[in-house]
Design goal:
The protein has 218 residues and is α/β, with parallel strands linked by helices. It has one domain (2-216): Alpha-Beta Barrel (TIM Barrel), CATH 3.20.20.70. Helices cover 55% and strands 17% of the residues. It has an eight-stranded parallel barrel with strand order 1-2-3-4-5-6-7-8, surrounded by eight helices. Strand 7 (163-166), helix 9 and strand 8 (185-188) form a beta-alpha-beta unit. The radius of gyration is 19 Å and the shape is globular. The chain binds SN-glycerol-3-phosphate. SN-glycerol-3-phosphate is lined by residues 6, 26, 28, 133, 135-136, 167-168, 170, 187.
Length: 218
């Protein structure tokens, strides 16, 4: 399973990259705004900085919601760097744009997916990635993980190439459950990734090893 980091924070991206487990980055307009990135050139520069840090795919989201606008924006973003993946919302003109980009060999990430039907459409339109939002479904008392299972089953039934990119991942258990049900990718902030490495017995065990070594060598 690939690990993407879901942030536009360069320090967090750098930290995950240095850990040696990072396969890519996802951003969205909210995450860019959180880092105070605004204005076309600043946004472009920021994407380029992200591409310099990480080796893998970097999702950059379009703002337009009409076909012509999505295509114009997406082509501009894709031309910035070979690692850029154009992130397109799951709306009618977004689906049309997914097919357009797919035919042109431009990588896409279909975002804001909350149902198996939406995921099926994204795959049929040739999306490279589909982003079902687990946490936001959990927020409204629907089982987000069940959606990942449903999409996995549908994509396997028909051997769709579209990769299941579990998004809105909020905690380590989400990551583990995604791995159990066969998500291709999880994207989440740095914190849940770092929490995966913690276990109290690891800390207790290491303290004991180091204390015993000290005793034997003093
Ligand atoms: O990748 C989508 C993600 O940014 C949404 O996460 O926690 O705002 O639901 P969240």
């Amino acid at each position: 399973m690939k690990f993407f980091i879901d942030t536009a924070n360069l320090a967090h991206i750098q930290e995950a990259q240095e850990l040696g487990v990072l396969d890519g980055v996802t951003t969205n307009p909210s995450l860019m705004a959180k880092e105070g990135i605004s204005g076309e050139q600043n946004v472009i520069d920021h994407y380029l900085k992200i591409c310099e840090i990480v080796d893998g795919d970097v999702s950059a989201e379009v703002i337009s919601t009409d076909f012509d606008g999505i295509v114009a924006e997406g082509e501009k973003l894709a031309a910035l760097h070979p690692q850029i993946v154009v992130k397109v919302p799951m709306i009618r003109d977004g689906v049309k744009a997914l097919r357009y980009f797919s035919n042109k060999g431009i990588k896409t990430n279909c975002t804001l997916v909350f149902s198996p039907g939406q995921a099926l459409l994204a795959a049929k339109a040739g999306a490279t990635y589909v982003s079902p939002f687990i946490g936001r479904l959990d927020d409204i008392s629907q089982e987000g993980m069940q959606l990942i299972e449903q999409i996995r089953l549908i994509y396997d039934n028909y051997a769709y190439d579209t990769q299941v990119l579990a998004a809105s991942v909020r905690h380590p258990l989400h990551i583990i459950q995604c791995a159990e049900v066969g998500a291709d990718v999880v994207t989440c902030p740095l914190d849940p990734i770092m929490k995966l490495l913690k276990h109290p017995l690891t800390d207790i065990g290491l303290d004991k090893f180091l204390a015993d070594h000290k005793k034997a060598n003093s």
